[in-house]
Write a structure and sequence with these properties.
This protein is α/β, with parallel strands linked by helices. It contains six helices and eleven strands.
Amino acid sequence: MSRSTEELIEALKTVEIPTLGHFLEDGFCDQDLRPVNSGPQLVGRARTLDLTKPDAFAVNRALLALEPGDVLVIRVAGRGHAPVGAVTAHAAIAQGAAGIVVDGPVTDQAALRELQDQLPVFSTGLTARTTKRSGELANEPDGALDRAIEIAGQTVRSGDLVLGDAQGVLILPPTGPGDDVLDAALASDAAEPALVARIASGEALAAIIATE
């Protein structure tokens, strides 16, 4: 029987993302999208923002639109300005966000690391140049939000599932990887400690690892 959305998200929080990599080929973001801090594994629903101009007000509108469990996913045109820093992160936490993913730089790294247990953050780098209170996107206050965006080689739509850990970010459809894949990944994770123990004990590798 298929999992409910809530059951799916809870199950994805327990599976190792690299284990999913044994079964999936698509959805993995480019390697330059990396964790800024080292909090809990990120799992949540995407809420996208296409930041075509370095407009801080557009970021604030996106923050106000967040619901608990959402992941704010921002595409920064040109990757030149940081839309996320200490204040933004605290606002996202206040909204119940599960995390933030920025295809572009962020700022206030030390503050973001202090918040790592509350808000996993991923970005392509750091900068002191930030978005401005310009209102440049005022003529499209809703158009920049919930638009399909390209981040680090993947298309993300609001409602997609966003996973992240120390290895990077994985984008999945709202239905997840499929029950068969998720069940196989969970079973693989459960079997791994015994497999590692057999290797550590000195048992012949030929009897343990598959070669065909």
